[in-house]
């Protein structure tokens, strides 16, 4: 098989992996700070995808333009969800949190089915079918734009946590819950803010993914599973780990499909996960639990 | 009334009742309770909903034909084999006297097992896996070609298309969806092809996940073979994904030869617009020249003006036609009588391509023939076999970059 096919596929996997990484980043941020595992993560992403679809269909607004408004809308959704529903469950047993978030996921899927029906729907922009030719490598233009946007959002999030007072306060909550309360931080508000930020990440990722593929209510759980595979591979709670996990899973699936059987490409992602769990249970960039 | 008059009247009434041909004992049910099992949610939801359109339009056409009424009981298989089995059980428990369904081979297999165990006739609308009618079942009937029949006619019709168009690919790559139907087709592909003198060599097969979100890798792998044509066994969503990748990866095969659903379906045509033109589908279809086809086309166009009549509608309608026809001849809703009546079916005035509807001892309509159809400007035309065609094939396909 010619070398160009490996380059083509690796480039495609890398670019898609960046968007997956952004999606998983939201899950990692939420878990890293709030210590709640968001089992409705993929379903929240389909909410963003449908928002982009509706706004594109009704107002002909390009998803790239919609990235910030939809991320903001998902931020508000996440903030309210955490403040009103999830917060009372913070100190409850993990199985209660699990049931709550699974229930939210089921509600979201069924609401989408009622409103949008079961058919796959997507957007077709002026550049949907564009591609760039770099020597023998043909790169999908949409994936390039989506990956670029994912990098920008990720950089913004990293900067927020590193350089702003609120970001530092959130990190303080993650590092030492009691200490944060002792110094007077409003932990509940910071948790809601964090959940909102995680939801904004997934909102941005969803807005980009509607450019790459169609949306159906049924894909939510598959994306939740994918996000888990990525963050566990990269390290649960680690932001750079989520991005690295996304890249690794994207490239592994792509190359696995070319080298072996395409129908079994997901197997390679799970294979990687098993290897990581065996040899580095905390994930590639995760910290060991004390 | 005097006592003598009363006794005379009573005797007269009794005599009349005894001689009457309309006694209660002889009453026949007016309607047959038909459980229609379709994947109306889940991965195959779009196709299940499409099949249901065949039920809606079919009921009106059956009434026009003067056939007895069917009382439809809907069951959603949720695109899941286990759910299909449990829904079949439930419909029978709720009084279904005959089952119809279920689009998918895996789900139809599960329903066939239930129908056979419970002794309820099951008329399969769409399912191509051969084993379903190879089990010696007495209550299972299929008015749909098996995978080998689809393949046999696909190759025969391809040769006819190539001859009519004066062009043929020298090489092809075979891609298929990795589900029950796709694997059955893949297994039969090489064996059936060897019986024909095809103008091309075949690379592959390249199997892919039916729930795949992205098929860029699969298309890149197919493109790397340098094949002139793409042979497909797919579903709807994957057909759309693959076409998008063909455009993005700047691959312009001279022909897309599909041996399954997807490429001719309305959502494919609507989603891709002018990019949907050109693929040839070798599928169970209808003969547009038949009388009943025109009736069904008109009824369908009236009910769903924006949706083309397709395989899902045709074969779901014909499954109901088989049920209503058998019910009429059996004069009873007794399952055994219905099964015997279905076995003796001989419908010549039908819709699907071929001589009509008859079942062999295994319960399979082995007289069915497939057609070759081509997408043209959002519409579908039949291009082979010649006797069931309404247009000539156009080959090679116009390159995607020049549309």
Q: Give the H and E element order of chain B.
A: HEHEHEHEEHEHEHEHEHEHHHEE
Extract low-pLDDT stretches of chain A: none
- Please identify the structural class of chain B as seen in this structure: alpha/beta
Using only C-alpha atoms, the radius of gyration of chain B works out to 24 Å
What is the straight-line distance between the termini of chain A?
A: 48 Å
**What is the multimeric organization of the chains shown?**
heterodimer
Largest sheet composition of chain A: 2 strands, antiparallel
Helix content range of the residues of chain B, please? 40-55%
CA-based gyration radius of chain A: 19 Å
Give a quick set of tags describing it.
heterodimer; A: 290 residues; mainly alpha; two-stranded antiparallel sheet; 2 strands; 74% helix; globular; B: 403 residues; alpha/beta; seven-stranded mixed beta sheet; five-stranded parallel beta sheet; 16% strand
Topology:
The complex is a heterodimer of chains A (290) and B (403).
Chain A: H1 3-34, H2 41-59, H3 63-86, H4 94-116, E1 131-134, E2 137-140, H5 141-163, H6 165-175, H7 177-182, H8 187-212, H9 219-234, H10 239-259, H11 265-279
Antiparallel strand pairs in A: 1-2
Helix pairs in contact in A: 1-5, 1-8, 1-9, 1-10, 2-3, 2-4, 2-8, 2-9, 3-8, 5-6, 5-8, 6-8, 9-10, 9-11, 10-11
Chain B: H1 3-19, E1 31-38, H2 45-64, E2 69-76, H3 81-93, E3 98-101, H4 105-118, E4 122-124, E5 140-142, H5 147-165, E6 171-177, H6 180-193, E7 201-208, H7 216-223, E8 229-233, H8 236-248, E9 255-258, H9 266-272, E10 280-283, H10 291-303, H11 311-330, H12 335-343, E11 371-376, E12 379-384
């Amino acid at each position: 098989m010619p070398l160009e096919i490996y380059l083509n596929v690796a480039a495609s996997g890398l670019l898609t992996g960046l968007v997956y990484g952004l999606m998983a980043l939201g899950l990692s941020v939420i878990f890293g700070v709030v210590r709640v595992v968001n089992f409705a993560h993929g379903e929240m992403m389909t909410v963003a995808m449908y928002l982009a679809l509706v706004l594109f269909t009704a107002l002909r607004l390009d998803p790239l333009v919609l990235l910030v408004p939809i991320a903001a809308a998902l931020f508000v959704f996440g903030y309210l969800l955490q403040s009103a529903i999830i917060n009372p469950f913070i100190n409850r047993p993990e199985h209660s949190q699990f049931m709550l978030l699974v229930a939210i996921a089921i509600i979201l899927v069924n609401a989408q089915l009622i409103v949008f029906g079961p058919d796959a729907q997507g957007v077709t922009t002026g550049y949907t079918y564009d591609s760039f030719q770099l020597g023998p490598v043909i790169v999908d233009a949409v994936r390039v734009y989506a990956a670029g946007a994912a990098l920008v959002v990720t950089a913004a999030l990293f900067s927020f946590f590193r350089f702003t007072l609120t970001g530092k306060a959130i990190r303080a909550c993650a590092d030492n819950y009691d200490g944060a309360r002792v110094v007077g931080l409003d932990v509940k508000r910071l948790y809601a803010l964090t959940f909102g930020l995680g939801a904004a990440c997934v909102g941005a990722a969803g807005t980009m993914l509607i450019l790459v593929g169609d949306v159906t209510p049924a894909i939510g759980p598959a994306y939740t599973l994918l996000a888990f595979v990525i963050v566990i591979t990269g390290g649960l709670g680690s932001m750079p780990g989520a991005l690295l996990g996304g890249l690794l899973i994207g490239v592994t699936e792509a190359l696995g499909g070319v080298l072996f059987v395409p129908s079994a490409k997901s197997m390679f992602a799970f294979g990687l996960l098993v290897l990581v769990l065996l040899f580095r249970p905390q994930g590639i960039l995760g910290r060991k639990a004390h | 009334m005097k006592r003598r008059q009363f006794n005379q009247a009573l005797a007269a009434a009794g005599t009349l009742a005894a001689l009457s041909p309309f006694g209660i004992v002889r009453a026949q049910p007016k309607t047959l309770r038909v459980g229609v099992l379709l994947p109306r949610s889940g991965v195959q939801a779009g196709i299940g909903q499409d099949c249901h359109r065949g039920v809606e339009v079919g009921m009106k056409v059956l009434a026009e034909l003067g056939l007895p009424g069917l009382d439809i009981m809907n069951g959603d298989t949720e695109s899941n084999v286990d759910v299909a089995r449990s829904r079949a059980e439930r419909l029978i428990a709720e009084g279904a006297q005959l089952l119809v369904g279920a689009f998918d081979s895996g789900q139809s297999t599960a329903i066939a097992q239930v129908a056979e165990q419970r002794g309820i006739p099951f008329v399969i609308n769409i399912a191509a896996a051969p084993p379903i009618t190879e089990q010696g079942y007495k209550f299972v009937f299929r008015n749909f070609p098996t995978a080998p029949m689809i393949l046999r006619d696909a190759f025969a019709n391809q040769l006819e298309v190539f001859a009519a168009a004066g062009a043929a690919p020298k090489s092809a790559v075979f891609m298929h969806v990795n589900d029950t139907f796709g694997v059955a087709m893949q297994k039969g592909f090489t064996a059936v092809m060897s019986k024909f003198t095809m103008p091309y060599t075949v690379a592959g097969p390249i199997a892919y996940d039916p729930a795949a979100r992205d098929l860029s890798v699969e298309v890149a792998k197919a493109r790397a073979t340098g094949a002139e044509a793409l042979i497909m066994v797919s579903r709807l969503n994957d057909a759309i994904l693959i076409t998008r990748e063909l455009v993005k990866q700047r691959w312009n095969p001279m022909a897309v030869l599909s041996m399954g659903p997807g490429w001719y379906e309305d959502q494919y045509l609507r989603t891709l617009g002018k990019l949907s033109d050109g693929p040839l589908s070798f599928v169970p279809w209808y003969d547009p020249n038949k009388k009943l086809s025109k009736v069904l086309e008109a009824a369908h166009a009236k009910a769903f003006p924006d949706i083309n009549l397709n395989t899902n509608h045709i074969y779901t309608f014909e499954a109901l036609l088989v049920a209503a026809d058998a019910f009429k001849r059996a004069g009873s809703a007794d399952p055994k009588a219905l099964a015997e009546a279905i076995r003796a079916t001989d419908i010549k005035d039908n819709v699907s391509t071929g001589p009509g509807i008859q079942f062999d001892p295994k319960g399979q309509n082995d007289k069915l023939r497939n057609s070759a159809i081509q997408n043209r400007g959002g519409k579908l035309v039949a291009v082979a076999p010649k006797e069931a065609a309404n247009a000539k094939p156009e080959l090679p396909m116009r390159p995607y970059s020049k549309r």
